[in-house]
Specification:
Layout lengths: L4 E2 L4 E3 L2 E6 L3 E7 L2 E6 L2 E6 L12 E7 L3 E11 L5 E12 L2 H6 L4 H18 L3 H6 L2 H16 L3 E12 L2 H87 L1 H16 L4 E5 L8 E6 L3
Antiparallel strand pairs: 1-7, 2-3, 3-6, 4-5, 4-7, 8-9, 9-10, 11-12
């Protein structure tokens, strides 16, 4: 560990030495073992160790603390999950010393303490998670570690910037089991999709058949309605034709009544037509009107 250093640099005179503190460090100034101030970056003069007759002067010592952002890696920690699966985990933590006095005074070695805190936080988090939780929500482990150690590290002057799970290693037989589980899940999902598709096809087919039956029923009703309308229209036409025929006969009768010669012409026309039939018989009323045609019959009929 090189973070705790006692620095004595450059001799300015025989009773003092000069030190230079860079911006990457802070210095703790001790006089007779008592911390009196914290040194920022700059140049400082430190008295040399006094002789026996100069014991009244305090003994000065300066200790440097690195305040840069650094990484701490915890490798290959084997931890049991909530469902008793042993997992090897590697974690990387980014941190920075924010309180040099607390980092040096509150714990013996703040880096070793941080290492231990991260280990314990990872064990507590994994012990509360089962394998499925770890596989589906890997970020939860990082979040748990960060939340767990942030306050504890702050008590000894260290700020945790982030904590990430670098690697998760599962036992060999578990890898095979996981592959089988994933294959089974994929097969189950495929079967589920197939079943849903089949159900949808059946539903669509049933809807199509129902629609066809509805259309056929509507077509049948339309045909029946059209047939009924056609029959009514035919009956109406027939009735109108009969009415016209009656009117024509009525008009003919009126004409014959008003003009008897027309009736005589009709009779003569009828006789002419009957003359072409050798089997026809003609009856004439000779007593009352010998000239008058009374009737005829067709023997061949």
């Amino acid at each position: 560990m090189n973070n705790l250093l006692t620095v004595m640099l450059g001799v300015k005179d025989k009773n003092k030495k000069e030190i230079i503190i860079k911006a990457t460090h802070r210095g703790l100034w001790y006089e007779n073992g008592v911390l009196t101030r914290i040194l920022e970056a700059g140049r400082y003069e430190v008295p040399l160790n006094q002789r026996l007759f100069e014991a009244k002067k305090p003994k000065v010592e300066v200790v440097l603390i690195d305040v840069r952002e650094r990484d701490l890696t915890i490798k290959g920690q084997e931890i049991l999950t909530a469902d008793k699966v042993a997992i090897r985990v590697s974690i990387i933590v980014q941190f920075r010393v924010t309180d040099p006095r607390a980092a040096l005074h509150e714990v013996t070695n703040y880096e070793e303490r941080l290492y231990t805190d991260v280990q314990l936080a990872a064990r507590r988090s994994l012990a509360s998670m089962n394998l499925e939780d770890i596989l589906t929500n890997r970020n939860r482990l990082s979040e748990d570690i960060l939340q767990d150690i942030k306050e504890a590290a702050g008590s000894y002057g260290v700020a945790i910037l982030r904590a990430d799970v670098k690697d998760l290693i599962f036992p060999g037989n578990l890898q095979e089991i996981m592959n089988k589980v994933l294959a089974a899940e994929r097969m189950s999902e495929a079967q589920l999709v197939e079943a849903r598709t089949k159900a949808q096809v059946q539903q669509i087919d049933a809807q199509a058949k129902s629609e066809v039956r509805r259309i056929e029923a509507e077509a049948q009703r339309t045909t029946q309605l059209l047939a009924s309308q056609s029959e009514a229209e035919m009956q109406q036409v027939k009735t109108e034709s009969e009415i016209r025929a009656l009117r024509e006969r009525e008009q003919a009768a009126t004409a014959y009544e008003d003009h008897p010669a027309l009736l005589r012409l009709e009779e003569l026309e009828t006789l002419r037509n009957l003359a072409h039939n050798s089997g026809a018989r003609i009856y004439v009323n000779l007593d009352n009107a010998p000239q008058r045609f009374l009737g005829a019959s067709d023997e061949s009929a």
